[in-house]
Description:
Blueprint: E1 3-7, E2 13-17, H1 24-30, E3 50-53, H2 55-58, H3 66-72, E4 82-84, E5 98-100
Parallel strand pairs: 1-5
Antiparallel strand pairs: 1-2, 3-4, 3-5
Amino acid sequence: MPTITFIDQDGNERDIEAEVGSTVMETAINNDVPGILATCGGSCSCATCHVYVDDSWVDKLPAPELEEMDMLDTAHDLQENSRLSCQIKVTEALDGLIVTTPPRQI
């Protein structure tokens, strides 16, 4: 199982084994990661699963689709490395992925 590191705004890190085929958001919700609200349940109709992807991983992920880009426009504290965690599918290639939760989701 690939491991994803979630970092909160206080710098606390949590390494969590993720199930291949799930999303980064589902992994966060199933493991009570603070800072991921996922209000829409992963349907890409809100931005409450917004995360910052570590710079070393940005180019390793598939580019965001138009729908995700539109939703990201509604996120607070948007950065160049912002992504919706509901749109990042877990694969073996994501072993070691690092994401940070933003200061606020809504």
